[in-house]
Specification:
- By secondary structure, the protein is an alpha+beta fold.
- It has one domain: Alpha-Beta Plaits, CATH 3.30.70.
- It is 59% helix and 14% strand.
- The chain has five helices and four strands; from the N terminus they run ααααββαββ.
- The chain has a two-stranded antiparallel ribbon.
- α2 runs antiparallel to α3.
- The longest helix has 23 residues.
- The chain is globular.
Length: 128
């Protein structure tokens, strides 16, 4: 985290614009979620991920996962949380979930599909 803060201080004007862009993306994403426009939401996720790369919170393994998700049909993919490992998630059409989960499990990752429900999210193909 220290190096991200140092990068922020060295490039204050640029970093402020990145954070402004992220805020705009968040507001636009809410609109796309409400309208169930998942293709556009995926595009915003990709843009946001690029901003996270620019501020320095991505690592090579994360980039491999993001690009693999996209190559397997995800509409968008990005890191979550503080980055530098941890969680990567994507927006995936339901028909691609099984294929993508299988591919990532074969690569040694803990992978699962989630679907939105009224209360939040629920794991796909999970016993209720």
């Amino acid at each position: 985290v220290k190096d991200v803060l140092e990068r922020y201080d060295r490039n204050l004007e640029i970093m402020e614009k990145i954070y402004e862009a992220a805020s705009i993306i968040t507001n636009k994403a809410l609109e796309y979620i409400k309208n169930k426009n998942f293709k556009q939401l995926g595009e915003l996720m990709n843009i946001n991920h690029g901003l996270l790369v620019a501020i320095g919170v991505s690592i090579l393994e994360t980039e491999v996962v993001v690009h693999k998700l996209l190559s397997l049909g995800a509409l968008g993919a990005k890191i979550s949380g503080a980055g530098r490992g941890g969680i990567v998630y994507g927006i995936i059409d339901k028909e691609h979930v099984e294929k993508i989960v299988k591919a990532f499990k074969e690569m040694g990752y803990n992978a699962f599909g989630l679907q939105p429900v009224k209360e939040g999210v629920r794991e796909i193909n999970k016993d209720k």
